[in-house]
Amino acid sequence: MPVSLADSGPAVALLRGLGAADIAHPGGTLLAHLQRVQRQLAAWGARPALQLAGLCHAFYGTDGFPGALLPLERRGELAAAVGAEAEALVYLYASCDRSATYPTLAEADGPFRDRFTGLSHTPEPQSRCDFAELSAANETDLARLDPAFRDRWGPELLTFFTRIRPLLSQPAWSDCQEVVAG
């Protein structure tokens, strides 16, 4: 079930207030990308907290998109807008040191390195699946809209998605195959 406008309204207002509608991003603006990621997660049947995390996944920057909208010291502002669970997923996504984490992400005890602290931990199975699903929604949005991105990164993304297949829902896996391999 898609997140209602009332549920995502505070997050969209915060995104607009922090300039996400003015930041260029493949497919238009950062805000447009974030809204597409949220819609993609909804189409895959993600629960509301994960959809909200999809809408807000770039708040603290990421390993692949360094520009943060909000410093980590202000995490409470995002939590107030989307709830503690969604904010924790945003932090998890933003904190991922991809080169250290991706190779063993699908392993139940695979370490997850926090790029902000340098420390590693083992996420719970649901958090690991949420991270994978959000990663798939983000990357397939970019690949769907930007042929140069798909040509450059498609084979590597397909290898990554294949490795984390056990963590992905069937709709997410189907889209990953269609978008990056198609």
- What multimeric state do the chains show? single chain
Return the structural class: mainly alpha
Give the mean pLDDT.
94
- Order of strands across the widest beta sheet? 1-2
Biggest beta-sheet profile = 2 strands, antiparallel
Beta strands, count: 4
Work out the strand percent: under 5%
What is the rounded distance between the termini?
27 Å
Question: Radius of gyration in whole Å, from Cα?
Answer: 15 Å
Specify the overall morphology.
Answer: globular
**Poorly predicted runs of 5 or more residues:** none
Helix content: 55-70%
What string, H for helix and E for strand, traces the elements in order? Answer: HEEHHHHHEEHHH
Our count of helices gives 9
Could you write a compact summary of the structure shown?
This protein has helices at 5-17, 30-43, 48-56, 75-82, 84-95, 98-101, 125-145, 147-163, 170-181, and strands at residues 24-25, 28-29, 112-113, 120-121.
Structural summary, described in words:
- With 182 residues, the protein is mainly alpha-helical.
- It is built from 9 helices and 4 strands; from the N terminus they run H-E-E-H-H-H-H-H-E-E-H-H-H.
- A two-stranded antiparallel ribbon has the order 1-2. It has a two-stranded antiparallel ribbon with strand order 3-4.
- It is globular.
